[in-house]
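Q: Here's a chain of 120 amino acids. Please give me its 3D structure as tokens.
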Amino acid sequence: MLIARNAAQVPALRASFLFAMYAILSHTQGSVTSWIRSPGHNAAHGGSTASLHLLGLALDVVFPTAATMARAKLLAKAEGIHYLDERDHVHFQAMPAGSNIVAAVKQFTTATAMEEKGEA
């Protein structure tokens, strides 16, 4: 199971998540359509201000067939990776334990938005 309890653990969690997803996608021919997003890009796509895309802890993926999509979901579940069925893709995300990760995402989003506006 993938776990991070604070922002300092995010890089290691990201590496574990991506390693697991690479293995899953190499066996299912999935194509990544979205990974790391800036706060502006995330907002333009209707993403949450606490989206794990902002930290590289979420992937949106499309699959060539329903069978390969089902296999990817089973493999992800076995790795402790959460997924959500969206209408045109599957959203996979690392499921870090604790609310500190959500706080880290919000802190990152605020700091990045300030930098983009020249306020930092």
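Q: Can you summarize the key feature?
A: The first helix runs from residue 10 to 28.
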